[in-house]
Amino acid sequence: MLLEWVRKYDLYGEQGLKKQSNARVTGQIKEALVKKVVEELIPLPLVAIEHGVSRSALKSWVRLVRQHGYIIFYQQNKRGRPPANMRKSKKTEPQSELEKLQAENERLRAENALLKKVRALVEEREARERMIGRKPSKN
């Protein structure tokens, strides 16, 4: 790391030691830098310092080219987090009779399970009130 700082200072002076802005590098520039490292056999740290890119970024570009070729720099990659498909997709086309019945059956099962839970909670509350000696309310 110290050697890298010395090289930056020799090439650019004090300005070379300051933090650089994160500029987007095009595919052509990436390809040219990787070709210098891979084909012209110029040391990777030297290329990184000369062109103002981070050594780790250049190293990952070289690895990508060795795995996938130069075409990897020109493929469109979607940025950001992919959307979550948690919900069921809403169908715009009319449902078949079977799908309608299955949906209704699922809704009724959920409703039945909810009613069972409510009934169990009411019975539990009444049992607790009997143990205390109160009469259950009619609410």
Low-confidence region ranges: none
Return the average pLDDT rounded to an integer: 81
For the secondary structure, the number of strands is: 0
Summed up, the helix count is: 5
- Characterize the largest beta sheet: strand count, sense, and whether it forms a barrel: none
Q: Which band does the percent of strand residues land in?
A: under 5%
Which value, in Å, is the CA radius of gyration? Answer: 33 Å
Kindly report how far apart the N and C termini lie: 76 Å
In words, what does this structure look like?
The chain has 139 residues and is mainly alpha-helical. It is elongated, with a radius of gyration of 33 Å. It is 58% helix and 0% strand. It folds into 2 domains: 72 residues, no CATH class; 44 residues, no CATH class.
What is the fold's blueprint, element by element?
Elements: H1 2-12, H2 27-38, H3 44-51, H4 55-68, H5 97-132
Helix pairs in contact: 1-3, 2-4
Q: Which characteristics define this entry?
A:
139 residues; mainly alpha; 2 domains; 5 helices
Quick structural gist:
Helix content is 58%, strand content 0%. By secondary structure, it is mostly helical. It has two domains: 2-73, no CATH class; 96-139, no CATH class.
